[in-house]
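SEQUENCE-TO-STRUCTURE ENTRY
===========================

Subject: a protein chain together with a token-level encoding of how that chain folds.

Sequence line: the amino acid chain in single-letter code, read from start to end.

Question of interest: how does this chain fold, as expressed in backbone structure tokens?
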Amino acid sequence: MIRDITGKLARLTANAVIDKGLFEKTRQIIADYICASFAGYACNRQFNRAVEGVYMGLAGGESASVFGSEKRLPVCTAAFMNAVYAHGADMDDGNRNAMGHIGASVVSAVMAAAEAFHKTEDEVLRAIVVGYQVFTRLAGACQPGMIRRGVHSTGAAGAVACAAACAYLLGGNETEVASAVSMAATQASGLLIVGETGQLVKPLSPARAAETGVFSAMLAKRGIVGPDNPLESVKGWIHAFTDEFDEDFMFDGFERFNAVNECYFKPYPSCRHTQCCIEAGIDLHGSVDTDAIDAVNVYIYENAINLAGVIPYPKSADEAKFSIYYTLACALCLGRFGLEQLEVERVDKAVWALIPKIKLIPDSSMEDRSRGIRGARVEVVCGGSREERTVLIPKGDPEHPFGWDDISAKLVQCAAGSLDRQGCERLIGRVRALGGSGEFSYARLFER
């Protein structure tokens, strides 16, 4: 048994002192989360309506706001629904080391709990910082073992991170944080099978994590105590989800709570493993005659092939988001990949004609965790000529970060049909102004 992982985590979380210098990045995270929510709300309608039909009918108090609705729902239900929307288009943020998405669960859980318990804007920003730290360090310490085991860290680590963040938000002491983490750990789940088939249900991973985190923190605040050693026991979370655990990665520098600066944002509505190929394809679009292409060789790391290289001909938007073949073909043929390209039945025939010419080739040099590299080299062969582009780190990663202009442009794209440009500017302005002792309200960000 690994010793006292839970105790260390609880002590560091309960006693966290958050530097306000991290708030600006946290505001960007909230803004990006809202972008992703607009996209997921619009493009995942079939699944959204089904879940709404089940969840919004559940009884309970009206304590927290829900994206896209004037209704207020019970706090756990609101956290669940908001996470469903935030992950629906796969445009939400993530972390390379943790190999998962954070904002969809953590931001959803913290904002719902904050509204229900009348917390301030500063308290929301601090709790989000805490949630990102716990997720990134815990999941990162267990990778790549989790992904090899077929575990979706978005759900499995998300539940623990949401519990820690919400317990911190509610003013939990070390015992209460440990209990919240413990109860969440016993409920945590998430399988990467959702990347192969049934992609429609992938948002359930962060949704369950958000719901579980809020629920566990509330129980802990009422004095309920979870099992001892929930993370480190031979019957615990770590043993269940991975054969590898790096305690140094987990705790070295943990007290700085700077993981929000390590997350990436996505320009394109698809799996992170497709992003470098899309960027390379868009760059190549103006340099090659797509009708004359004989072959496209994609040199890419093996994990990308295993997770996003199994669907050459997607039949739906959900499959399209997890197809390197399709997203690259769109980028090369059209010079873009946006929400409209998820409507696979409307895409130009040239895209489908190019797909059989694309070959994915495992290349270990395209992945180096220590340097933050998860990239791709795309080589286009036309007769006797070759053009290639290598993207080791895509736009949106910490080394090539989004600025506010990038986030604003993303919101315009994601909110098309819901908000005009003036409405987008107003929303971004309100997010940028978050902070202080005023009571937090998610719904107020969207008021006209």
About this structure: Strands lie at 64-65, 72-73, 295-300, 358-362, 367-368, 373-374, 376-382, 385-391. DSSP finds 19 helices and eight strands in the chain. Residues 23-43 form the longest helix (21 residues). The chain has two domains: 5-262, 272-391.
